[in-house]
Amino acid sequence: MTLFERLGIFAARRRWWIVAAWSVVLLVAIPLAPRASSVLRAGGFSLADLPSAQARAQLVDALGLPPSALVIVYDSPTMQAGTLAFETAAYLASQQVAAAPHVVSVTSHLFAPRQVSGDGHTAYDVVLLDLQPDDSPDALPGIEAALVPQAGMAVSLAGGPAFYGDIQKVSEADLRRSELVSLPLAALALLLVFGSVVAAGVPLVVGGAAVIVSLAIVFLLASVLPMSVFVLNLATLLGLGLGVDYSLLMTSRFREELARRTPPGAQPSQQDVESAIRITVATAGRAVFFSGLTVLLGLLGLVLFEFMVLRSVGIAGALVVGIAVLSALTLLPAILAILGPRLDSLRVRRVHATASGDGAWARLARRVMAHPVLVLVPTLGLLLALGAPFLHVRFNAPDASILPPTVPSRVAFDRLQQQFGEGDFSPISLSVRTTGQVTDDANVALLYAWTRRLAADHRISQVVSIVDLDPRITVAQYRLLYGSAAGPPDRFVQAALDASTKGDLTAITLYTPYGPNRDEAKALVADLRDPNGPLAPPAGITVGVSGGAADVGDVVARVGADFPRSALFIIVTTYLVLFVLLRSVVLPAKAILMNTLSILAAFGALVWVFQDGNLSRILGFMPLGYVETTLPVILFCVLFGLSMDYEVFLLTRMKEVYDRTGDNREAVAAGLERSGRIVTSAAIIVVVVAGSFVTADIVLIKALGLGTALAVAIDATIVRALLVPATMRLLGKWNWWMPAALERIVGNRLPRSEADVEALIR
Question: Of all helices (H) and strands (E), which one includes residue 216?
Fold first, then answer.
């Protein structure tokens, strides 16, 4: 007797104990689950060992610079900066900010002319914080409480902390909206599939339990480990989608098995119910276990990344999948054992529990297998064409443009870009080390010459350094100023020196007309880092580059460098799991290839929609002009396992028939017929749940939902209905090839097929 048979027997006989145990777990989880969002963070896109982070750390550690900053924006259509009315209103609005928690200092626009717009109607102050970037939103409540609204002046917050804070708020609103959309649609789909209110309600109960327990565990984990706010949306998507999917698959198999054991018009006995549950868990439960394992392995690929946003999504996603599988293999069989034939209560329409031998899906499979090449070539061409836009993908890091235009930090961001240009708020910072003291005569001369060379570059609009205080000061005068034993006699010069220089380290800031995601800014960073490039520092000076485009480029480069390792882990482990499940060398490789094609098509759609801007009006967003760099990684890891779900469901039914008949064509037709309606229904549930995130206001969540829905829809239709039968017909008996040596090693340790289980029961 296999492990899954024993589990089915245990669930049937200990049904009330299992339901009671889950009830206790839910009673504990229900108060904790809603609190998950309160401990999640919106950052997670930085690493301490990135070149840009190391350069910034040098300045922070040596000069005591605050690690993060916030911007207070003053905007008035009637008053101008410099006038008594404007400055009085600005002072009254923010005079208490300096005393707010985590505020180190405030740099007023009164002492920085570049912080006032050309028309004078907009100005900003810079608030320096003692928090790391990922923790900086913690300063928002105190600063927001300290701001006092003023008549005739709009006062708002911008910058990283405000951006991250709004992401958290909007993410929670997006989640509530998606639940309102997806739950009624999922319930309607289940009602159409099962034809009764009770049968439709069971998967929702089991899926809902998985989501609640998962979010409660996420709350506990996030209380001690940093976890991204995007975990919230993904946990709901996976928990509800997979929980309902697995429940739908097993409930359908239970109804099928119960119908086989009950003569027409007769009432099944409790023994019939327990027997049906035993076979359901031994067959469909086994498929759910291995299907969940492939999804879990895909998500564990994210754990191999060092970025908190990716690692936490992987940890939480794997946790959700594990809970969904556990609920499907324990709670669901227990509920089915309690309900028995009452599962079909409150019927709204009659649905046949068993698939006919030669239904629509079987006829489609036979038509495809009659002309496999004619089906394979155009279908393959279609999928490659759908994926073609991915060839011109541009990866970048997110900024406030991923938020809807009405969110306060986005409004302030747009206003600042309009008045000051996109480059003013993403300057490039240089951490410069000299041989000996920075203020030595020779080093002052070297810095003076080098910064003039930098200023001459058309991509740099302004250089700020200790040798660029005033264009009228010559190099000889700078050497006199810094050569004085008592220090510079001018207080302004002394203040600039104290703020930017210590020993052999000095900071240089470069302002450009370009935002951090622009190609020109990235090219400038590359030139600054090139030791043989036109902007390389002179001998005796080393430079580290951070800020702006350097941060973006380093994140994109690290994600790209780490992705092959994660992809290889996912592919190899998935192959091994499918090899054990299917006892075939060929089928796992074919399944992985099919999966890759559907994911490629989804990636092409992401570029076509979110980078190129097609359908942006319909979907309600402004085109980004790029794809956020972590999005394809998350999608690949999620979709690789999620799409494999349906391949596992389909191939396990085919294998059951092949083990019994040895006929490849019959196995494909019967397997597709038996799984067709249920797998299509399961895919519809996931498409509905994922598609509901298209209503999200955050573009990244919108893209995640659309990409998931498209990939699952393509996999469940084009791939499963056309590509799979065509390729299995062409491969013939090679589908099931297993070398004798491998068969001897693993063959006797594998779970039994349905035919074996039924024979054992008889």
Answer: helix 197-222
Q: How far apart are CA 532 and CA 431, in angstroms?
A: 18
Half-sphere exposure of residue 238, counting CA atoms within 13 Å on the CB side?
37
Task: Find where tokens 């086994």 sit.
Answer: 286
- Write down the mean pLDDT value for the chain: 87
Q: Which residues contact 148 (CB under 8 A, 6 or more apart)?
A: 92, 93, 94, 95, 96
Rounding to the nearest 10 degrees, give the CA dihedral for residues 206, 212, 214, 220: -160
Half-sphere exposure of 660 (CA within 13 A, CB side): 18
- Domains present along the chain, CATH in parentheses: 1-39+195-347 (1.20.1640.10), 66-164 (3.30.70), 359-393+402-411+555-756 (1.20.1640.10), 427-546 (no CATH)
Burial class (CB in 10 A: 0-12, 13-18, 19+), 256: buried
Q: Retrieve residue 442's tokens.
A: 């020779």
Identify the CA nearest to 422 among candidates 469, 461, 458, 393.
461
Q: Which residues contact 492 (CB under 8 A, 6 or more apart)?
A: 469
User: pLDDT digit string (tens) for 3-60?
Assistant: 888 999 999 999 999 999 999 999 999 999 999 888 888 777 788 899 999 999 998 8
Phi-psi sector, 580: left (phi>0), alpha (psi -120 to 50), beta: alpha
> Quick one: pLDDT band at residue 657, thresholds 50, 70, 90?
confident
Measured between alpha carbons, how far is 758 from 280 in angstroms, rounded to an integer? Answer: 11
Structure tokens at 34: 């809603």
Under DSSP, is residue 430 helix (H, G, I), strand (E, B) or coil? strand
